[in-house]
Design brief:
Blueprint (H helix, E strand, L loop, with lengths): L1 H37 L4 H4 L14 H9 L3 H31 L6 H8 L4 H15 L5 H25 L3 H9 L4 H12 L1 H17 L2 H6 L7 H6 L9 H21 L1 H9 L6
Helix pairs in contact: 1-13, 3-13, 4-7, 4-10, 5-7, 7-10, 8-9, 10-14
Length: about 280
């Protein structure tokens, strides 16, 4: 009797797990769905009671207004700042991580000191940075934000890439050196292909960190280099909020992240599970 009942019990448990996973997925996806629907609604439909789950007619006027007013330039600014700073941080951070992993640069505690710099609360340093930027004329410019985001992302990149590089067998590099490759060729032809999943995963997270930053962009920009998170705050007012613009801009602002994660998806799980947790 027990043997006969066991498969049925496992089937019920499995069905409950799938049901719970489905309900949790719907709960997490509902805000995304609701935001997407609001971006196509008219003001009357947005404030309709009871709420309208589907707009009466798909219309793109909310998106058209963003392009007409030039608000989408904030997304372009974020793409430039986040993309360039992430690229620079990945290149410099990977080279630094290789030095730490293979040559023991700075001793055993340098890696821990580097990652500790990433733990500094941004609110604690934003005011001194603002004064320095004002003195050197770096406020409201691409160079200032790119320099700052690169500096803040470097510790994370160095820490993550060091763990990935340590996992690469040293014998492979020694064999490549014996075969006549120089150190730069070893890094490019041996190390990079081996740590590619970790490199891609680190690139995505670095890009997301820079893309989502609000505090530095709010303090260090004025009108020329307004980024996506700062632009969103312009739609919130003391008397009313422009929910249509908020929804449309949010949808447009999530597209680069969605595309980046979709393209790098096959690297993310493998990259995260590699040796990044090693000290």
């Amino acid at each position: 009797m027990k043997v006969a009942k066991l498969p049925a019990r496992k089937a019920r448990i499995l069905a409950l797990r799938y049901l719970g996973a489905g309900v949790a997925t719907l709960l997490f996806l509902f805000p995304v769905y609701w935001l997407f629907m609001i971006s196509f609604k008219t003001p009357d439909e947005i404030y309709h009671v009871p709420p309208l789950w589907i707009p009466g007619q798909i219309q793109f006027s909310n998106y058209y207004v963003l392009f007409k007013d030039g608000d989408v330039l904030a997304i372009l600014n974020s793409l430039i700042v986040a993309g360039v700073s992430s690229g620079i941080a990945i290149v410099l951070g990977t080279l630094c991580a290789y030095s730490l992993a293979r040559f023991g640069t700075g001793g055993e505690n340098l890696a821990m000191w580097i990652i500790s710099q990433r733990m500094i609360p941004p609110i604690a340093v934003v005011f001194p940075i603002f004064l320095i930027y004002v003195y050197f004329g770096l406020v409201d410019g691409y160079f200032g934000l790119i320099l700052l985001y690169t500096a803040f992302n470097l510790p994370y990149v160095i820490w993550m890439m060091r763990g990935y590089i340590v996992d690469v067998p040293l014998e492979l590099e020694e064999s490549a050196l014996v075969d006549g490759l120089n150190r730069w060729e070893v890094i490019w032809k041996v190390v990079f292909p081996m740590v590619r999943p970790g490199l891609m995963a680190t690139s995505v997270f670095t890009f997301v960190f820079a893309w989502n930053d609000f505090l530095f962009a709010l303090v260090l920009t004025r009108t020329e280099v307004i980024t996506f998170p700062v632009m969103l705050t312009h739609y919130f007012g003391g008397q009313s909020n422009f929910w249509a613009k908020i929804a449309a801009m949010s949808v447009l602002g999530t597209l680069p992240i969605f595309v980046a994660v979709s393209v790098m998806q096959r690297y993310l799980v493998r990259g995260i599970s590699l040796g990044a947790v090693k000290g």
